[in-house]
Every structure is written in structure tokens, then in C-alpha cells.
Amino acid sequence: MSFQYTIWILLLPFIAFVINGLGSGKIPGKISGWIATIAIGISTFLSYRTAFQYFTSSSREQVIAVKTTWLRFNDTLQIDLGILLDPISVMMLVVITTVSLVVFLYSQGYMKNESGYDRYFAFLSLFSFSMLGLVVATNLFQMYMFWELVGISSYLLIGFYYDKPTAVAAAKKAFIVTRFADLGFLIGILMVSFYAGTFDFEVLTRPESLQFSTAATFMGLSTITWALLLIFMGGAGKSAMFPLHIWLPDAMEGPTPVSALIHAATMVVAGVFLVARLFPLYYAYAPTALEVVAFIGAFTTLFAAVIACTQYDIKRVLAFSTMSQIGYMMLALGVSGYEGADGLGYTASLFHLFTHAFFKALLFLGAGAIIHAVHTNDIREMGGLRKHQPITHILFLIACLAIAGIPPFAGFFSKDEILSAVFANHPIYFGIAALVAGLTAFYMFRLYFIVFWGKATKYDQVPHESPAILLIPMILLAIGSTLAGFIPFGQFISSDGLPLASQINWPIAITSVILALTGIGIAWKFYKVESTSPDKVAKSFGTLYTSATKKFYIDELYILITKGIIFRLVAKPLAWFDRNVIDAFMNLLAATTNWISVQIREFQSGQVQKYAIIFISGVLIIVLSYIYVNR
Amino acid sequence: MIEQVPLNHALIVTTMMFFIGVYGFLTRKNLITMLISIELMLNAVNLNFVFFDKYLYPGTLEGHFFSLFIIAIAAAEAAVAIAIFINLYRNIRSIDVEEVDKMKY
Predict the structure, then answer these.
(1) Taking residues A555-579, what's their average pLDDT?
(2) Sequence-ordered list of residues with C-beta below 8 angstroms from that of A510, at least 6 positions apart, any chain
(3) Tens digits of per-residue pLDDT, A442-456?
(4) B103 part of a folded domain
(5) Domain extent at residue B34
(6) Fewest C-beta atoms under 10 Å: which of A40, A109, A335, A569?
(7) Contacts of residue A609 in chain B, CB cutoff 8 Å?
């Protein structure tokens, strides 16, 4: 069976990017939007076809659909570009193209009156191309290249409103933080490939075919553990895991559809995808690294959930919720085993990635529709919107129920799998995960009740229901959020490639639903109507509450470390040394040369007689000294 | 025949001529005078050739021929130099040597 055509899944968005990028200003905005949307639409169709073709075939083998040598250094070291199809990459193709298509459609309405419409679609197409290239990468190096392309598209889109200083600062922050993490990723790639002798996933995902020497150790851990930890650092940067998460809340400065596509559904889960891609390697050679993944995941999920409860910017609440959900996925990967039923965590993690893409994109698009109507991000200035935006209200409610894990919405199934996987392996982490399930329901419904119920705020102009071009994409996602949970995911994706029969673990499902309902109940009590109890509760938490509103001062800590320590103690002395020693030496050389040339410049006066005097005196000196010597 | 003048005396005369020429070349600002000073130096050298030929190698003619060559070349050189001076004068309305410093660039 041939998968040659999959190359077009990548090429079409790229062509749209080239056309929109080169034709910027020449193509009317509407047409550039449709070029991009049609390109991604065809990609989506091809992805579905690929998925159908791939999953209906009996084997779950890796298929190299396309492969070309890109850089050839010598016989053993060469870097390929190509398309690798296996269950997770095909699943990601479907997720990315679906969410992209929906967001592209939505953007047509949302960005209608913005200047730079064609630029926006050019960047968005570039992003889709890069993200698709990332998931189908055949080797670590190709993945790294597309990883950086994704980073740059994210940078360009966060800074889309480039005349807004906060957006520019957020774009730079996102770029620098993820770049810093990618440094670790690159070192990790080089270490892994040095020991494995290859970049190819075909080999790397079959650990039994590798001959790693685990003897070499550094600080008590084997080098391969270090390498995989460094690779995880890259993933943590992209996926906004603590402590590299600081860029994600600020990234919400970008247009809302961008937040939905890049910073909720696709790019930020690249880290999860990376760990999942190399999961056999992690499992076989670096169980310690997996423990770190689990720990970071568990910590981030709780940390972000607590912060999300205290924020007032609608998009930031969603951003922290994204971090929290990605933490869930990482936790599930970290506690997962490899063989058979032990691999439930792996399946659950990717299942959650799949469902999360739908409902989180829907939440963001809903937030976009709300922001579009009320022209503010601050939920304290919203309220009673269910009367003004009845359809958005229903769609947002579906997404909230999905993320809170209420059956039969998608989040329930994936969250249940994660919880049972964590429960089977690690009771303490299960406690955290269950607590977070409750918190998630609480903060989502806090948002929901404040925005859609609450007291009806006086609006300057009455908020209106969104036009169809915004609603239709949201309805598509709502259908996804409702039905995605019924997909027998374990049949398609599992750690060892064999179908995994997963059924609902009822005790855990009931626990999580009860926790979610408790969260919803508290939110109902606090926020459905105006009440003073949230303030009282906030007061009783005291320091915890204030520090959570300040995001636990992590940004300030970063400023302290970078400005206070690195800049002052390292950069400043180095700058002093550079200016006063290295530059000074060079300046001295230049000044000396200059001084000498000024001094001797007078010799060349153009006055014939001066030349003659010098010449004659020279002759006289030579003659006289000759006479004196031979006296 | 009168008593021969000793070589030393003759050389003193030519040396004086030469250095008068040098002095003139270095101090005069008029290009024509400088050219005359050069002629003076050349003539001092010519005389030297003749004297050395006469006193040290009597009967040969090499020194005389050298002198004749130098006279011929000096004539050509003077012609070229004066042609340059005339053009110079046409261009900058001056034959003052201190004003002629464009060649340094």
C-alpha cells in the first residue's frame, strides 16, 4: 500500500505559505484566507484518508512513506528528510489538520477587520506545515528542524500585533525560553545519536536493536539517562512544563485563534509527542528520566491548576488550564509501562492529547467569540452573557463539561484512563491527579459561571451573538469534544503496538466524576450569583492565595536570576573585561598606528625641495659615515 | 705651456659649483631657477669627468664622451622641463615650486 501522497499533506500548507508570503499586499485579504483554508482543507482530507488507510490495514508497523537524503556527511552519518507513519504520527496528523482547518475557518471571521490579514494566514500556514513536518519526522534531526520552525511560527504569531509592546515582549519571551530549552534538546540529540550511531526513529524506537553502553556515568546517572533528560528539557520548554512554563501565559497576547491552535491544541503538546515518540528508549534505558517526567508532570498539573483558580484574564485561565492538562499527559507517560496492560499510561496520555485538542481549542475559540463581543479579556467585566450569546454559551458549556470530565463528553474517557493508569502505578501521584481533576472542574466552572451567569454587567454596546463563520467551526469542535471519547483509542495506539483493550475503570471513574461535580458545585455556590464567600475563602487561604494570583512569583524569580545574578554577576564583569581589556588592547593598536601615521604624514608634503633636502642629507650621512668608517 | 693646474684645485672648483647648484635647487622657489641650478650641478659633474680623464688617464677619450652625452641629455631634459613648466603655468598661473604639490595624491 502506497502512502506517497502523504507528502502533499505537508506541501499544501507550505505552498499556501509561499503564495501568501510572496504575494503579501498583492493578493486581496479574502482570497489569501481562502487559499490557506483550501490548502489545509485538502491536507485534512488527505490526513483522514491516510488514517483510514493506515488503521484499516492489519499491522501497526512503521511505514516510511517518503524518504530523501538531505545531508550526507559520510557513509555512516547522513541526515534524511521524510515521512514516517506510525500510529501516533497518523493520529497527530488527524488532530493537527482538523484543529488547523477549524481555526483557519474561524480566523476568516475573527480576523476580518485586522490589517495584515494575508500575513496572518501566511504565518498560520507556515505553522501548520512545520507542525505536520514535526510529527511525521523520520529522524531526530528532522524533528529538531521542524521543532524550531514551529518555534519561529509561534514567535511570529504571538507578536502578530507588533505595534503592541506587550505582544512583542511576550513573543520574545516565548522564543527565548523555548530556545533555551531547545539547547538541551540539541545536546540530547547529539548524545543519543552519538551512542546509537543514528538519528532514525526506526532504529531508536526499537531499543532491543541498540547497543548502548550504560557503563559511562555522570553524577550517578548513565549518559543515556542524561541525554534523555536533556531531550525532555526541550519537550518541557515547548510544552510549558514547570519551570520553563513562564512563556505560555504571556503568549496569550497573540490573536485568540492562534492561542487555540498553537498554544492549546498542537504546538504545546509537541513535548508530549516527543516523549511518546522516544518512549521505548525512555522505558528501556532511562527509567530515572521517566520518573522525572512523571514528577514534573505531576507538579505542573497541580501548580498550574492552583494558579488557574485565581486568574481573571479569560485567556490566562485557559493557558494555565492547558499547562495543567499537559502536565496530566506527561504524568501519564511518566508512570506508564511498556508491555500490554502496563502501557495504559501511554495510551491514556495520547488519548488525552487527542481529546484535549478538541475541547481546549473549543474553549479558546469560545473565549475568542466572547472577547469579540465584549472587547475585554477580564472576566470581572463580563457577566450574564448567556442571554446575549446563547449558542456560544451552549458550546462553551460542552467544552467545560468535557474538560471537567463529566460523561459522556470526551474528557471523561481520557481522564479516566489517565487516572487509572496513575492509580495502578503511583498512589501519591494519583492523589494529586484526583485533586487536580476537582480543581479543573472548579476553575473551569468558575470561568463559566462568572462569564455566562453572574450579575449582568452594563455593557457599552450590547454583546451580540457571533456570526456563523465563528459558530460553525466551534460547532464542529463541539461535536469532536462530545464524540471523541467513544473512539476505542487503545485499539489504535499503544506502547507496544498491540491493541490494548481498555474499559472504563468504574471505581475511579465514579471518584473522578464525584470530584468534578464537587468542583462544579463549589463554583456554582461561589459564582452563579454574586456572593462574598469567594473573598472569604480567598482570605482564609491568605498567602497561598496572593502568591497564586502572582503565579507563585516564578516570573519574578526568573527576573531575579537573570537580571540579578546572571546579568550582574556574570554578564557585567564579562562586559567590563570585554570593553576594558580586549577592546582596549585593540583600541591601543589602532591609536598607536594612527599616531605614527599622523607623525610621518608630513614627510609626504608634495614639496619637491623638502624631498631633495631629505635625499641629500641622506646621501651626505651615508658618504660621511663611509668616510669616517674607512678613515 | 703654462704650469699645469693641480687636480685638487680643479676639484675644489667643481665641488663649489656643485654645491652652489644644490644650494640654489634647495632655496629658490622659481622652477626656472631651480632648473638652472640643476644645470650647474650637471656642469660640475661634466667638468669632473673631463678633469679625471685628463689627469688620471691621459690619452683616452671616455670622459669627454661622457660629458658630451650628458650635455645632450641635459638639453633634452631642459626642453621637456620647460614644456612642463609652460603647461603648468597655463593651468595654475604660477611656476612657484611650493604651489606644485598636487602629485602627492
Answers:
(1) 84
(2) none
(3) 888 888 888 888 776
(4) no
(5) 2-93
(6) A569
(7) 25-27, 97-98
- ipTM, interface predicted TM-score of the complex: 0.84
Each residue's pLDDT, cut to its tens digit, for chain B (105 residues) gives: 456 788 899 999 999 999 999 999 999 999 999 999 999 999 999 999 999 998 888 888 888 999 999 999 999 999 999 999 999 999 988 888 888 887 777
Q: Do A607 and B101 touch (CB under 8 A)?
A: yes
Which amino acid would we find at residue A231? I
Four-point Cα dihedral A357, A358, A363, A365, nearest 10:
100
DSSP A276-342: HHTHHHHHHH-HHHHHHHHHHHHHHHHHHHHHHTT--BHHHHHHHHHHHHHHHHHHHHHH--SSGGG
Question: CB of A93 within 8 A of CB of A47?
Answer: yes
- For residue A65, give the 3-state DSSP assignment: strand
* Residue B100 belongs to a domain: no
What's the CATH number where B62 sits?
1.10.287.3510
| Backbone angle region of A495, left / alpha / beta, with phi > 0 → left and psi within -120 to 50 → alpha | alpha
Chain B residues close to A606, C-beta within 8 Å: 100-105
> Which residues have a Cβ under 8 Å from the Cβ of A7 and sit 6 or more positions away?
A65, A66, A83
Joined together, the cell numbers standing for residue A513 give 466524576
Strand partners, A67: A82
The SS3 of residue A539 is helix
Whether A175 contacts A151, CB under 8 Å: yes
Report yes or no: B97 at the A interface, CB cutoff 8 Å. Answer: yes
What's the pLDDT score for residue B4?
A: 76
Residue bearing cell 458550546: A395
CB atoms A607 and B103 under 8 Å: no
Please give the single-letter amino acid code of residue A534: P
Decide if B58 is inside a domain: yes
Whether the link from the prior residue into A408 is cis, omega within 30° of 0, is yes
Task: Residue A514: name the closest of A405, A401, A432, A351 by CA.
Answer: A405
Whether A594 and chain B come into contact, CB under 8 Å, resolves to: no
Please state the domain count of chain B: 1
Q: Would you say residue B67 lies in a domain?
A: yes
Best B22, B26, B84, B88 residue to mutate vs chain A (most A CBs within 10 Å): B26
How far apart, in whole angstroms, are the C-alpha atoms of residue A305 and residue A324? 6
Give CA–CA dist A187/A194, Å, rounded. 10
Distance set, CA B26 to CA A602, A615, A618 (Å): 18, 11, 15
